Structures are given as C-alpha cells and as structure tokens.
C-alpha cells in the first residue's frame, strides 16, 4: 500500500464577506462570514503529501514549480497539524520527525481572485491531517493558511465564527447545511480577468482595518444581523432573501474597500455593468432571481437556482458575445432557453470578449481523499511531472 495521501478540496465563495483581521498572525477575523462550497468536480485543488525518513528537507511543488517551504503560513499549518497529532498521539514520535513532500495543483487560475488560496490550504491541511491521522476539526488550522480556507474544510453552506478568544481556539468553521439541503443552488462565475490582482486580500483588508470608519459600522451593526438572516434564508430555502443579503453584503464590502485610505478598487467597469444587468434582469423577472457577489477582484459570482440557469446563460451570451463561443461556457452542462422579447430588450450586446469565460458550477461537498492512486507524487516521493 502506498504511503502517499491525496486529497481534492473545493473553493468557496462568501455571501457574507470576511474583510478585516483582529489578529494578523493568527488570522483572526473581525466578523463572522458565510459561504457556499462549490463542486470539486468543476473547480478544485489537488494535493499529495508524503513523509519519509530519507527525505532531506520539507519540499513543496505548486502547479509544477518548486516553491519555498519558508512561507510562515505554510510553516504554521504544518506545525499545528503536528502539534495536534502529538496531542492526539495519533502517530509515532519518529513519524513526526520525518520531512514531508507536498505537491499541489489547481485546475483553475491561481491567485486570480478565484479563491485558490482557500481551496489550496483546505486541501493541504486536510491531506496533512490524514497523513498524521488527526481526527479533530482542522478548520482552525486551515485558517492559518488563509482565512477563507477554513470554510473550504466543509461542504454545503458554511459559517466561519469570528470567535472572541485571543488565541483563536473558537475561530472555527461549522457547516450550516450540507450540500444535499439546497441542491438547486447553482453558481455562474463570470471571469472578467484572471491575472494576479494589484492589492492582495491580505494587504487590502489590513488597510481597511487601519483606516475605514465604514468597516467599524459594518462589523458592529450590519454583519451580525445579516449573518443570522442569511442563515435563516438558507435553512428555509428563501432565495429572494438569500439573494438580497448576498448582493447588499458584496456592495458593502466594496464600499469598505473604497472607504480605505488609500482606497482599494477591485471591481472594474465590466463588474459594475454586471451588477446593473442583474438588477435589470430581476426587475424584468418580477422578483429576485439572481444574486451577484464579487471578491477582491473583478470576477462576478452569480448565485441562482437551477431553473433559472438556461435563461441567464442565454442572456449572458446575448450581452457578452465571445470570439470563442465553443469554450465560453465551461463546467456543468447547461441548456439554453430562448429569451422573451422583454428580457432581450433589457440590454444591448456589448463589444466582444468583455467576459473571458463562464464557469457553471453548483454547491458541493468538502474535501475528499482520492483512493484511485492518481497521486501527484511518484514512488520516489517526487512530482510525477519532473
Ligand atoms: N493548491 C495550493 N496549495 C497550496 N497553496 C496554494 C494553492 N493554491 C494557492 N495557494 C496559495 O495561495 C496564494 C494565492 O492566494 P491569493 O489570495 O493571492 O489568490 P486567490 O486565493 O486566488 O484570491 P482570493 O483569496 O482573493 O480569492 C498562492 O500564491 C499560494 O501561496
Ligand atoms: C474577499 C474575500 O474573498 C477575502 C478572502 O481573503 P483571504 O482569505 O484570501 O485573506 P487572508 O486571510 O489574508 O489569506 C472574502 C471572503 O472570502 O470572505
């Protein structure tokens, strides 16, 4: 039997955003956040890990390239998993002393605002937990890699509790409902740009924490109320309520980014155009059918129910013509529906390629171990691609 462990882990897109830390080293947030975990069959990180007595050093390969293992976030995750394993006495002292090799790949662009760090660290920490046979919840360890990663440790809809303990022991993720609760919930990710962003989330939220008055108001008054309300909406499958809170929270997060000094601008003209289009679509539909949300970048994530997907895909194709129509919609198969004249008239077609491509996905499960032997490390514990 192989001693290599391989795990795939999902991305998650928040509907109540995490933005601002109360402790930068422990990655403790100022507020609770809520997200949906997205299907690993469409977007995922895949990570293989292995610990052997003859490895000379800890090593990590990310997307085919050897990277430094010195990153404090990586070191913190490995250290905490080993401490947990030692406390649980799950492996021998000798095993804990061994060096590890890690090889990871994302099947979508890295560091492009598509939550690669969330999937990446959830995957790494889950794989290490299996390697060291850790049984307890590891969301607080994934949090040390990237805050939002703690939510990718679970499937379905997930809440990250900010917690109040200075040492962060209560800053953990819990599942609100699993992925079978609201299977009709789909997501369309409209990729406006997939290059590295100008201001990282870490830096952007540091500036906001130091300078934004609006962030203080958001943390104290808006997020607590919205968190409770959206959890109710999720439990009751109340889409219009869910969508309204999602859109308001995205708008407020970007208002906080603009209220920072110097301001952080993540949305582009195309992003704002999408916001306007969704509001027009909802008005023309007579009720709220689609929600948008934007992370620290220009890409839109639209949440909508399955029934609505054919119409919305037709609308996107009509408004955003592509020079590569055959590869414009990726992910889950989606039918198209002829748009009614009323919906056709809400927006004229724009110039070609404002949106690069669209990923159609849905709410899915948390990290899973891959047992078919398709490891990223070979028998020598080195990347198969080397
Ligand atoms: N599969 C992975 N395994 C380990 N680390 C990863 C993996 N994927 C990404 N990362 C880490 O996350 C970093 C990218 O995080 P960053 O926050 O810049 O981008 P993002 O996650 O795509 O965007 P955002 O967090 O705003 O959605 C990478 O440079 C790398 O350090
Ligand atoms: C806008 C967000 O996507 C911010 C994500 O920030 P990160 O989790 O990437 O930040 P660090 O904890 O500094 O690594 C909102 C969210 O996912 O809740």
TrEMBL record:
<dbReference type="InterPro" id="IPR029765">
    <property type="entry name" value="Mev_diP_decarb"/>
</dbReference>
<keyword id="KW-0756">Sterol biosynthesis</keyword>
<keyword id="KW-0152">Cholesterol biosynthesis</keyword>
<keyword id="KW-0456">Lyase</keyword>
<protein>
    <recommendedName>
        <fullName>Diphosphomevalonate decarboxylase</fullName>
        <ecNumber>4.1.1.33</ecNumber>
    </recommendedName>
</protein>
<keyword id="KW-1207">Sterol metabolism</keyword>
<dbReference type="InterPro" id="IPR036554">
    <property type="entry name" value="GHMP_kinase_C_sf"/>
</dbReference>
<dbReference type="GO" id="GO:0004163">
    <property type="term" value="F:diphosphomevalonate decarboxylase activity"/>
</dbReference>
<comment type="pathway">
    <text>Steroid biosynthesis; cholesterol biosynthesis.</text>
</comment>
<dbReference type="GO" id="GO:0005524">
    <property type="term" value="F:ATP binding"/>
</dbReference>
<keyword id="KW-0753">Steroid metabolism</keyword>
<feature type="domain" description="Diphosphomevalonate decarboxylase-like N-terminal">
    <location>
        <begin position="9"/>
        <end position="173"/>
    </location>
</feature>
<dbReference type="InterPro" id="IPR014721">
    <property type="entry name" value="Ribsml_uS5_D2-typ_fold_subgr"/>
</dbReference>
<dbReference type="InterPro" id="IPR053859">
    <property type="entry name" value="MVD-like_N"/>
</dbReference>
<dbReference type="GO" id="GO:0005829">
    <property type="term" value="C:cytosol"/>
</dbReference>
<dbReference type="GO" id="GO:0006695">
    <property type="term" value="P:cholesterol biosynthetic process"/>
</dbReference>
<dbReference type="Pfam" id="PF18376">
    <property type="entry name" value="MDD_C"/>
</dbReference>
<dbReference type="InterPro" id="IPR020568">
    <property type="entry name" value="Ribosomal_Su5_D2-typ_SF"/>
</dbReference>
<dbReference type="Pfam" id="PF22700">
    <property type="entry name" value="MVD-like_N"/>
</dbReference>
<keyword id="KW-0444">Lipid biosynthesis</keyword>
<comment type="similarity">
    <text>Belongs to the diphosphomevalonate decarboxylase family.</text>
</comment>
<keyword id="KW-0547">Nucleotide-binding</keyword>
<keyword id="KW-0443">Lipid metabolism</keyword>
<comment type="function">
    <text>Catalyzes the ATP dependent decarboxylation of (R)-5-diphosphomevalonate to form isopentenyl diphosphate (IPP). Functions in the mevalonate (MVA) pathway leading to isopentenyl diphosphate (IPP), a key precursor for the biosynthesis of isoprenoids and sterol synthesis.</text>
</comment>
<dbReference type="InterPro" id="IPR005935">
    <property type="entry name" value="Mev_decarb"/>
</dbReference>
<feature type="domain" description="Mvd1 C-terminal">
    <location>
        <begin position="187"/>
        <end position="368"/>
    </location>
</feature>
<keyword id="KW-0067">ATP-binding</keyword>
<keyword id="KW-0153">Cholesterol metabolism</keyword>
<keyword id="KW-0752">Steroid biosynthesis</keyword>
<dbReference type="InterPro" id="IPR041431">
    <property type="entry name" value="Mvd1_C"/>
</dbReference>
<dbReference type="GO" id="GO:0019287">
    <property type="term" value="P:isopentenyl diphosphate biosynthetic process, mevalonate pathway"/>
</dbReference>
